[in-house]
Design brief:
Length: about 1050
């Protein structure tokens, strides 16, 4: 009886299990898939193999194009028998492959960071909200492929996909960002064939693909067929290493051959390595006997004398040529792969490339194309590489999955260090024991994801680290993944952020967004392992403050070697609102407002969605530059040139240099210079600058620039690659100026009127709501709104992340309903001073305002802030706001420029006299926020087309902005709204802010970290002043 019960129970369990589809069973993630291998293609001869152009191979057929397509909202509605050849698809739509459904009219794109777009219940997903795409495509098999093996290759396997050929099921795959390959030989026929695919947007694999990205459906990478003979090269692993002296190449290779026949085969392999000119630098031959229906590995070893080395600076590549021949010495097939001789080592807690400690000036990058969703084509990749080279970026973390194969070829060719990351993130499940990485039924699929990336990309010189994945806790699976990767590839370090500094399964400490205090502690000690931040400098909105501070600290540390900015792209898509206004869509847009979304958190990149510079792009270029300059003896023109390249000498053949000496913002002298600096060294150079003497009211700045001398694949000759600026210690710009003229002063019962020629001022003396009440020139108002105190800026994304739109909100109202107490006036030396004590609204503080009417007609305003409590929060800004007519839009300033800059992000902007239009000052941030500021401003001028306007001169450096919007126009209030720049209408006026300071932007993260202490303003007293003059 008991045995009968057990048998019945087992039958019931088996029946239940059999009813669970593959896409909800974590133990089934591949059916009939070929095992993971390197990416390569067979060719019929060595010439074609060396060229390695897939389209030129007679053994290749692209299936990219327009496929027939049927979208359904849930699996139950998907067509059941659509894979049958006689199924009527005449009413189906067209879908490009590669292509994402949501960008071709099907479904809603969803952006979410951590939260899964379905109820969490692993391995199950919501069967009533899981879109399914059914595809059909017809292809022809040429007669020349008769008797050969035929495989279909998907460069990205999609989250969950079934494949049929001619009505027969060929297989099933999971893993959206790694290849899936199926042997379809048994199912094909000569001539026309029918391919059917059914793709599920979500499945159990989605629990391991919880990356911070748009959740899109579809086959978004290349699909193709290829054919091989009945014996073939099935895989190979090349090891182009260097000897202990980093001079000679130490080469080894394992080649796996496959025999599909029922007979033993006597074959031979020829291995050649060709240099750039086609000359063979290595050649070996080996006979190999392969048993029937079996595989056999051939191994090769040897040396290459003093090869050109591969680094991201010097991407020297060789062509590995593998030729398979039959027993009659006829070519069966040939394949090739670019390889680079280089050695990656960790010694003494530091990463070395070819014996040199390298700084990783990196960025994280998702697969993204603003036109198509997530279809990254060659044009997109090349533009990314161009921008990265311009910005001195030398490393990319493929967050958080392997990129398309073409990316790796391009990085090999043009030079880029890659941290190649497995398609693995289960962030939404938490980091504790509940994470599926601790469950045995999920172990195999975790392992499959590290195997797929390692096996696919193992021959790429650009790949220098493997990464186990991202933000998934550190369950047992990750220790097994680490152990496998270390066993499979002994040449590369393996990293995993969640191992932190306590677990064994990482070779590199790779924290994300460490606190500033923890970084300072770690920088001061020997950590025993390299420290390379896998994510830092979260570039959301108006951000990337303290980026220079990051690198100043890292360069003081033994173990710190850089990091990867989060992230490269702002992931917005072009859209139009109901009024036809264009904007960049983010989470919650494009029909997703009522769906789970994380708003504009996807807008956190270094470049714009359409691959252009934005304001904080420039700080990346400056801080990452590879030629550095330090002052040594400025007065004698001596500076130090530091070559931060590790493998590239600075010579008169690759770079040229210029210097400029500015006197009060204007060029006083300029010249060129030459310098030869070996790689990874420094050298002093004396510039032929004129003698600089201390003078009252005068300041000097020395600016030096380095330029590309020759055109490179991405940089034109003359492209600026580095810059630096030095102030002279004797600078004494801010001094009192003498003036002449005569004031006409009239004191009445409730006001004071002062006139100087055509200029007239009026001040209230008996009105608690006002101070300066009139300012005219030739009977016309100089300003629409006179200067008033202002303590608020439109909160940035980082401000919102720290909740400071609430914590500091009292500073917004501090400038409203101020009570002015007239303190008296004093006439002295032909000038008159009018004083007020201002009591701030809602803030326990006062500001003493002093207006000085100078006898030349100018007005000096001095503001002295004094806190009456020690418990006031940090100040957002301290200054004055005023407005002018819109036609005063010609904006000149002497300060830092030309683009916007802030107290913690201005190292890339130089002192100078700049000119622009007011309407061009605000950057259209994707969620409106503070923009347009300039720091270290000595003076500014706003003029109309007739040259009339105002000049404002600081009594000390100012922080200013001149835009067409007030702070409240860009401020959504206490909570973010679904707002875009298109929602902001420019005012028909110039809004001028003249401040002593504005708090820093911050740049550690966007969910709590504030500016570094030195960029905060928490003192109990601040004072500053400026003078307004009418022009002309």
């Amino acid at each position: 009886m008991r045995l009968t019960f057990i048998l019945v129970f087992l039958l019931v369990i088996t029946n239940i299990t059999s009813q669970v589809p593959e896409w909800q069973n974590p133990e089934i993630f591949a059916v009939n898939k070929e095992k993971h291998r390197a990416t390569f293609l067979p060719y019929p001869d060595q010439t074609l193999a060396i060229q390695d152009n897939y389209n030129s191979s007679p053994y290749f057929q692209s299936l990219n194009g327009i496929w027939k397509f049927k979208w359904t909202a849930k699996p139950a509605d998907a067509p059941a028998d659509f894979y049958k050849e006689n199924y009527n698809i005449s009413d189906w739509a067209d879908m490009p492959v590669p292509g994402n459904w949501e960008f071709n009219g099907f479904g809603i794109p969803i952006y979410t960071n951590i939260t899964y777009p379905f109820p969490v219940n692993p391995p199950f997903v919501d069967v009533n909200d899981n879109p399914v795409g059914s595809y059909r495509y017809e292809f022809d098999i040429p007669r020349s492929w008769d008797g050969r093996k035929v495989f279909i290759h998907f460069e990205g396997g999609t989250t969950a996909m079934y494949v049929w050929v001619n009505g027969q099921e060929a297989g099933y795959t999971e893993n959206a960002k790694s290849p899936a390959e199926f042997d379809i030989t048994p199912y094909i026929r000569q001539g026309k064939n029918t391919l059917a695919c059914q793709v599920y947007k979500y499945g159990d694999g989605s629990y391991l693909e919880d990356q911070d990205m748009w959740r899109l459906g579809g086959i978004n990478r290349n699909v193709y067929l290829y054919t091989t003979a009945q014996t073939r090269i099935s895989d190979f692993f090349a090891h182009p290493d260097l000897d202990a002296n980093y001079k000679n190449g130490v080469f080894s290779l394992e080649v796996e051959l496959k025999n599909y026949t029922n007979e033993n085969k006597n074959q031979s392999l020829e291995i050649s390595i060709l240099d750039k000119s086609g000359k063979k630098v290595f050649n070996k031959f080996q006979k190999i006997d392969i048993l029937a229906n079996a595989s056999k590995e051939g191994q090769f070893r040897g040396t290459v004398s003093n090869p050109l080395k591969w680094t991201a600076e010097t991407p020297n590549l060789y062509t590995l040529l593998i030729t398979l021949k039959d027993e009659k010495n006829n070519i069966v097939e040939v394949t090739s792969h670019k390889i680079g001789f280089r050695k990656i080592e960790i010694n003494d807690g530091q990463v070395f490339v070819n014996g040199k400690k390298v700084y990783f000036k990196g960025v994280n990058m998702h697969e993204y194309n603003y036109k198509t969703g997530q279809v990254a084509d060659r044009e997109t990749m090349m533009r990314n590489l161009q921008l990265m080279k311009e910005l001195n970026i030398n490393a990319v973390r493929t967050s958080h999955y392997p990129q398309p194969p073409l990316w790796y070829k391009l990085c090999d060719e043009y030079g880029m260090y890659l941290v190649d990351e497995a398609n693995q993130e289960s962030h939404g499940l938490g980091y504790g024991p509940e994470n599926v990485s601790n469950r045995p039924e999920w172990l195999a699929t975790h392992m499959d994801r590290i195997k797929s990336v390692v096996e696919r990309d193992k021959n790429h010189a650009s790949v220098i680290f493997w990464s186990l994945g991202n933000e998934s806790g550190n369950g047992k699976a990750f220790f097994d993944m680490y152990d496998w990767a270390k066993q499979r590839d002994i040449s590369r370090p393996v990293q995993y952020e969640q191992a932190h500094q306590k677990d064994r399964n990482t070779d590199v400490f790779c924290p994300m967004y460490p606190s500033w205090e923890s970084m300072k502690r770690d920088a001061a000690k020997d950590l025993g392992k390299p420290y390379v931040m896998c994510e830092y400098a979260h570039a959301m909105g108006n951000s990337m403050g303290n980026f220079q501070d990051y690198w100043d600290l890292m360069r003081s540390s033994k173990n710190m070697q850089g990091g990867f900015i989060w992230e490269w792209h702002n992931h917005g898509y072009p859209a139009k609102d109901d009024q036809g206004r264009s904007f960049w869509a983010y989470g919650g847009d494009l029909g997703g407002y009522n769906l789970v979304n994380d708003g504009n958190f996807c807008m956190d990149g270094v470049i714009t969605p359409d691959q252009q510079y934005m304001p904080h792009t420039h700080i990346v270029k400056k801080v990452y530059q590879n030629i550095l300059f330090e002052k040594k003896d400025l007065y004698n023109g001596v500076i130090t040139v530091i070559n931060d390249y590790k493998f590239t000498d600075l010579t008169d053949d690759n770079y040229y240099y210029e210097w400029v000496l500015l006197k009060n913002g204007k060029i006083d002298a300029e010249g060129k210079f030459e310098v030869l600096v070996p790689a990874d060294s420094r050298k002093d150079i004396k510039l032929n600058i004129p003698q600089v003497k201390a003078e009252a009211g005068v300041e000097y700045y020395l600016q030096v620039f380095a330029y590309n001398k020759k055109e490179t694949p991405f940089l034109k000759a003359g492209f600026e690659v580095a810059r630096e600026e030095f102030a002279f210690d004797s600078n004494n710009y801010f001094v009192n100026k003498t003036n002449s003229g005569s004031l006409d002063i009239t004191k009445e019962q409730d006001k004071i009127v002062v006139t100087v020629g055509a200029i007239r001022y009026e001040f209230a003396t008996n009105d608690s709501s006002r101070s300066l009440t009139g300012f005219e020139n030739n009977g016309k108002r100089v300003m629409n709104e006179l200067p008033r105190l202002n303590f608020w800026r439109a909160p940035t994304d980082n401000d919102f992340g720290a909740n400071d739109q609430i914590n500091l909100r009292l500073w917004e109202v501090a400038g409203d309903n101020i009570r002015y107490h007239f303190s008296g006036s004093e006439e002295k030396d032909g000038n008159i001073t009018i004083k007020y004590e201002c009591t701030l609204s809602a803030v326990d503080a006062i500001v003493n305002l002093t207006y000085t009417l100078n006898k030349d007609g100018s007005l000096t305003i001095d503001s002295h802030y004094k806190a009456l409590s020690d418990n006031l929060p940090e100040m957002m800004r301290f200054g004055m706001i005023m407005t002018l007519a819109k036609d005063f839009n010609d904006f000149s300033w002497y300060g830092r420029g030309p683009h916007e800059n802030y107290v913690d992000r201005n190292a890339e902007t130089f002192i100078g006299i700049w000119n622009s239009k007011v309407e061009d000052q605000a950057f259209p941030y994707y969620r409106p926020q503070e923009t347009g500021n300039k720091t270290d401003v000595r003076w500014l001028a706003l003029k109309n087309s007739q040259g009339k306007g105002i000049l404002i001169e600081g009594s000390q450096p100012l922080s200013v902005s001149a835009t067409n919007n007030r702070p409240e126009d860009l401020d959504p209030g206490r909570t973010k709204k679904q707002q875009h720049w298109s929602d902001v209408l420019p005012r028909k006026e110039v809004v001028l802010c003249v401040d002593l300071f504005q708090r820093g932007l911050a740049g550690l993260d966007s969910w709590g970290s504030r500016p570094l202490d030195k960029y905060k303003f928490k003192n109990n007293e601040y004072a500053y002043g400026f003078t307004i003059r009418c022009l002309p």
